[in-house]
Records
---
Amino acid sequence: MIEIKRISCLCMAMLLAFTVGVLAQVEFSEQLFLELAQNVNEIPYIEIPDYHKAVLDNGITVYLVEDHQLPIVELEGYLMGGRSQENPQLPGVIDVMTHMMITGTANLDEYEFARFKALHGINLNMVTHFDHLQITADALSTDKEQLITLVADVLQNPDFSADYFGRIIQELYQYLAFSLYNAEQLSNMVFYSVLYAGHPYGTSYDILTMLQSFPSLTPEHLQDCYYRTVDPQHLVLIIVGDFSADEMLALVEDKFGSWASQGVELTGTPVIVDQSNYDRIILVNKPDATQGIMKMGINMPDHSFSERVAFMMANRVLGSGEFSCRLMNVLRSEKGYVYGVSSGVQYFKLGSFYAINTEVAEDKVWETRKIIKEQLELIKNGTLPISDEELFSNVNYFNAFFPQSYRHKIDAMSNIVYSVEALNWRENYLNELVAAYNQLTAEEAQAVFSKYVFPERFITVIVGNKDRILPAFIENGVEVEVIDLF
Amino acid sequence: MNRFRLSLILLIISFLFLPACVLGTEEQLLIPEIDYHYFKLDNGLQVYVIEDSSVPLVELGIFYKVGAIDEPPGLTGISHFLEHAMFLGTESLGKGQLDQLVDLAGGYTNAATSFDFTYYYMEVPSSLLELAIALEADRMVNLKLDPVEIEREREVILQERRQGLENVVFNAGLEQLQAAAFADTSLEHQVIGWAEDIQRITVEDLASYYRTYYSPNNAILVVVGDATVDQVKDLTEKYFGDFEPQEIDRPRFKVAPQGQGRVYELQCHTNIPIALLLYHTPAGDDPDLLSIGVILNILVNSEGSRVKEELQKNQQLIIETAGVPRELRVPSYTLIYLVPTSMETLPLALQAFDTEIERLIEEGITEEEFQIVKKHVMRSMIFAQKDPRNMAINIAYSALSFDQPNLLSQQLASLSELTVEDIQAAAAKYFTEDNRIIGLLVPIN
């Protein structure tokens, strides 16, 4: 079927094409390329870097890997908890807390902090996720002591009452207000608040609530958040680079050893799926927009989902974002409607989601949504099941690129350690994952997709101009909830 | 700007790395040397090879010396349009087959267009090096432009424009400002081009543009990864060796002398104003670019830079600032932006910024500031060596645009000779009120 279609396209192209060819020494032909492209990549084996693991008396878990290829030291830290620990009435407080922590400490005021980083060439950042805070830092190996000293100071000695508190709140408030003009931020706000209504995950992107609550935030709120979420027993540090593991461990013990655990217990309520959300379509009116941003999604099991490998491969067939995936093939290569479209699962500890994202011209929003649902149905009901060829292409790609993803020891260790420490997976899980997708059959991938994907349940959030987007929905008798923010 | 997202490669090129060089610090660092091989075919195709067998993959990139600054009036965006068309089939392969072949073999391919070059790349298992070279050779000379497919792709490009430019406040504002400030020059439009020009470009225009610029003597091929220089030599001879070079009649680039010192107020969909300051600066190989980079670092980019300390932290007039030089093969501009806290603080922020510039010109910089810049350069250079592809992109870009593959290493070697007076002189020469254009992106109403 596919071959016939391709030949027919070629014939048409030959008739219509404007050709600008030149003869070459080699006779270029489809046959030549098909022969050159014959390739089955070997199943890779991901080397687990030699590491030293230690648990300090206060509960900090430390993984150390010596890597002398370059004179650098890289640190990655996971502080478990994250936004899941927030009070839904005060969304964003954990972001403000981390912002304050990486601006200054009780030992270094704002100016001294920036100067210290600049003089020692230290890069330091903290990012808030749903289930953890992620700390990344690096420096040249000549500055490793300063690097560890600074990270330890940031985590142990915050100064939430510092004189820059008011300015930080004001700056973050202005960024939030600015993000109301960003269509993607708006779509996230509505999507998360509907999918995770009443849960800390759901208020994480709630710009409107944050705009209301930020002006009344006090240093005490941040201090309270710190006491409830930051504790050495929930911290895992991975340090990779040009050092001796023994010396680095001594340095870590020296800088972190006196930080006493307060026995902080993390909380967390599993997400409850609200069935009244099924098939809702919500349009956020953004009158100045010249396109529609669309996000379609459903709830999925939490991050312990046992069939995630099969689902991952099935999803790649539908929406990897590559030209070969079905959504790109139909919506871009055939229709010319989108520049990009992709789908994927975001796994979280208390409840995940599966979503499809795209941006499209206003007069094509309705039809694009319809096509996406059709493509979901084609796999779901087996009308156009996942083929061996589609699965092989993705397996072959993964086998080629998996080793590259973990060529740097910090990347491999970061992934392995998070899986072991946060998900309780085995140390060798990367190679188990490789084995699992290589053993998967197209039928199994198809079955798992059918089991968990329900096209009629997808929530759709669109951000764009309602006057130009809504008529096609009305014309087709589809109900849309409209939110007017502007 | 590639087929999936807007990105300007130039923004990441500055101060990346320095091969085979040692910068002094209190504790000397050993910087690994990076080797590359170079050869040139008789038809002018230049080839750079960086061998790296750490994983069994190879990346092949081909740079064509053509970009948005080469576009004639009325055909803005044609370089980028052609980039899209290069994936739509050749005499031998139908639409999408190039992607399919690379995907099926376990590889990846994409492309990007900039102001002064167009770049195609593939990353494939090393056993497929021949496939990658053959595919690039085929589309260098055998492109097929199907009118039906060009019409469909036109819609994709228009959507890309909506997504990456029209609906992004900063980019939409910069487009308006460049249009006003650089009217009637090659810098008056963005890489993606004006929507009406994208609508207007014909198959014949694309074919003509392709014939003009896609030839071996207007390209540089870069191979990085698990391949030897001998393999690459044999394969490039085999697949590119017979292609004929051609005369490139490049339009003369026109620099805009008008507009200096002007202030343009542009209404945008935003709640806070943004000030864009465009300073006229020379081409990317000018020795002054080194001083300009240092000035930007000290003024707005580094941790604890002067403008951040004074305008953001002390006076609380702005919430953000940064700067970047556009290092093209022609004179261009350096962009500095300020995000004031409100419309009321906007004029105060601009005034305070000028005060910092004056202070830099009059008082120069401190030894500590210089030390911080050197530290920044050294760490950037060493960290960049984690990925040899960065090296390849820089070498190829410098060779293509300036015929100086080692330009960056030369610039960085000059860093140790740079004096405070050089920096003051550059500040006085370029960062003046009559050498800039200001765009104020302000909320509508």
---
Amino acid sequence: MSTAPSIEHDTGHGQHTEPYQGGVMRWLTTTNHKDIGTMYMTFALIMFFIGGAMILAVRAELFQPGLQLMQPEFFNQLIGVHALIMIFAALMPAATGFANWQIPLMIGAPDMALPRINNWGFWLLPPAATLLTLPFILALFGIGDGAVNTGWTLYAPLSVQGGMGVDFAIFSIHILGVSSILGSINIIVTIFNLRAPGMTMMKLPLFAWGWLITAFLLIATIPVLAGAVTMLLTDRHFGTSFFNAAGGGDPILFQHLFWFFGHPEVYILLLPIWGLIPHVLGTFSRKPIYGYKAQVYAFIAIGVLSVVVWAHHFFTAGLPVPALLYFMYSTMFISLPLAVLFFCWVATMWRGAMSFETPMLFAQGFIVLFGLAGLTGLVLADVAADAQYHHSYFVVAHFHYALFAGGIMGVMTGVYYWLPKWTGHMFSETLGKWHFWLTVISFNLTFMPQFFLGLAGMPRRIPDYALQFVEFNAISTVGSFILGFSQLIFAYNVWKCVKGGTKATDKVWEGAEGLEWNLSSPPPHHSWEVQPVIK
Amino acid sequence: MSAAEQEVEMDTPGSFSREELGRRRAASRRLAWLLGAAALAIYLIGFIYYRP
């Protein structure tokens, strides 16, 4: 472990002399928002590849009808753990990584308000991810029957009857939930208490606004999921009957509790992205963000509406007609504030002096493809139509347009946009453009056929299928492998940028506006030791 | 950038005084405890609430 000179500083985590440690201890004990942000992003990237490898195995199995590579039980496990990893261990940590890196820089704060909790919030993640994947390894040694095999939704009564993998998933979800709540508390108090003098709430960058709403959603809904899986645990091992009909319980209650968390979770994953996209569009259109206030109010409206629409995920479970009508109309109502965001994004680019560097390409890809997710979401919100589409590949295609094109491509946008600021080096534009085009083409090759498979009646989460679905499945599998392997370009580009390259200027992008671009690239170890004042 | 953000400029820089930083840190801790308690309350209420 190497040591560097001590640094005297006055930050959000108190007046102290911090020995500037190197090696492993730096990462284990760090309370620096940039170090923790880097750890979140690195962890998310690793888990993205692990979750991606799992689904490539699934797609390989689906290349042809019949069972070629794995038994249905293992297929189910891969699908469930893929989703849990991608949502809880890839997308959410990536968004928290952005928050850690960017929020203090963008609001003029010296660090996050609660730096030690910040460290703890991150270090809860590796054990939680281990718990999710450990049952796969234990099963190799004949212990247990593999990982959670219920899909990520853990629906009762299947999950009440499932094997040891369900218990591992329950404990993992509890730990991931604690981590998310700690992160959310930190982000809220940082935004409320550590903004630079003069930065009123209506001068807050949109990225910070997006995260503020996200953090409140997390605090309101994660405890509900935690409660539901605790009840599931007691149903499995302590003789309760929350979800066991034979004991007077109600399996549909689990669906209500799960989706009370699960639907806001979609917005939890997307609001930080919606916050960062306008910054990128404004920068590369060399124009101010259009409709700042409208976007803030749209974020708030979407946040509020997201917690009152959950039952559209199980229209076919047998809900009373008034409930169906309410959830259908309330779900469709969300498209209004979402349309406001789309209009503002397009209007920001309108008549701008646009240039198409990699972050801008990803932002535009995000708008078009995420738009398709919105349109197909409207179709699914229709009770009558949903009776046909429910549990089909149409749903799988829809939520991948939302969560890959909307979520992962949004994350790519942000990484390419801020990477030069973080590392002090420019990434390779050539590799970035290759990455973008391969991603967009292979993504559509993977998921567009799944809309047609769903419309034709192919059910999701099934390892075998009828002969009529052969061609679209083969195309989808080929697309998925190109998509998966093209992400290695991204990893290589990031690694190359971290190691060196053309020096980035402080402002990095010609049209960039905002506090963070006033700091050096990379920013000093302690951001904003000298407080900026906002006019 | 928003019109509001365009007004963001560096002015004469300074630092938070120790008193000001201490006040902000104390406010952060208070709000953090409040949010944590709210999360815990939401978690526990489902176990206490009786549905007839």
